[in-house]
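Summary for the steering committee. One of the milestones for this cycle was to obtain a three-dimensional model of the protein with S-adenosylmethionine bound, which we needed before selecting residues for the alanine scan. The sequence and ligand used are listed below.
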Amino acid sequence: MTETKERQAHWQGVYTRKNEDEVSWYQARPETSLRLIANTGLGREAAIIDAGGGASRLVDHLLEAGHADVTVLDIAEAALAAARARLGEGAERVRWIAADLLSWRPDRQFDIWHDRAVFHFLTEAEDRQRYVDVLQSALKPGGHVIIATFAPDGPEKCSGLPVMRHSPQSIAAELGDGFALVETADEHHVTPAGRMQHFNYARLKRVG
Ligand SMILES: C[S@@+](CC[C@H](N)C(=O)[O-])C[C@H]1O[C@@H](n2cnc3c(N)ncnc32)[C@H](O)[C@@H]1O
């Protein structure tokens, strides 16, 4: 199996076995993400991508707030299908992309890249570099990046997979000189099973 196929099989299995509101990362309303997106100061026409968005309800809240250009990318078709089914007709206002973001070739550029709990699965330096390369081709000059990972005192695994935990500063260091750290946030996420998980968020702006 190729790497992509292994990743796909893992995530497709997760979303096939569980409802979208049963996964540990489920949030009824992703408050921190919505606040950081609002803090970019960009309006409702901004092109936003939720990279590794899965079946997250972020897209529901963005549509409700009037955002008109929203893309959700995920490696698991089952996750996108769950979000589409939930949104009903609203799903037609969203662009859905089933792809491994590490090998994805964007055909356009975005104003805002949002990733909650995807970057932290990249435990190999080579994969993190691939992620940064894709991010650079997908983001407009001056665009904003919001990345959330488990914090240094957060869990060591997510969905049974090992993660690399980050501070906002280590996220910024991984992205390199082309990005300036603008804002940080932390979140104490309570899973549907009642466990607390500490997340760090970094909002960065593409510079140069
Ligand atoms: C922990 S979940 C977080 C989902 C969503 N961001 C949220 O906060 O609800 C990680 C997500 O990343 C997706 N994913 C993992 N690796 C990926 C990759 N290489 N390319 C695209 N999606 C990926 C998974 O299918 C899953 O939906």
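Key point for the committee: The mean pLDDT is 97.
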